[in-house]
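Reviewers of the previous submission asked for a worked example of the structure-prediction workflow described in the proposal, so we include one complete record here. The input consisted solely of the amino acid sequence. No template or homolog information was supplied to the procedure at any stage.
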Amino acid sequence: MKANIKNIAYGIAHKFSVSSEYFAYLALSNNINKIKIDLLKIDVEPELFLIERNLTLIRYCSETLQYYFNKLENPPEIIEAFLYVEFDLLNKIENNGFYKIPAIFTTNITNGNNKKYSATLKENIQIII
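From that input alone, the workflow returned the following structure tokens.
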């Protein structure tokens, strides 16, 4: 079951990363490089990111997490599920309003047995300002 939960964690990181352009835009515009998302409480820190457009993506990832957990044989209870996003604003590449921002997406899941599962994905997020 460990591999399956880790795969779910990776899938959530990937699902979020492919739609994270507005998060990257806000991060770049406000010089914020770290974001913490609670996938169970549908919450995000810093509060600047707590807007409906972003909450829609967070809810989608949360629903996906619950869906795949429920497909596991004897699914464990999820105690915590966080997604951490780190934008490397110092190493961004800019060309005429086009930005490529390196980012790291890490999903951490803790089940009812207090076992922790983590998966990390590195991507370059591209935005136009």
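The CA atoms of residues 35 and 47 lie 10 Å apart. We consider this example representative of the routine output the project will generate in years two and three.
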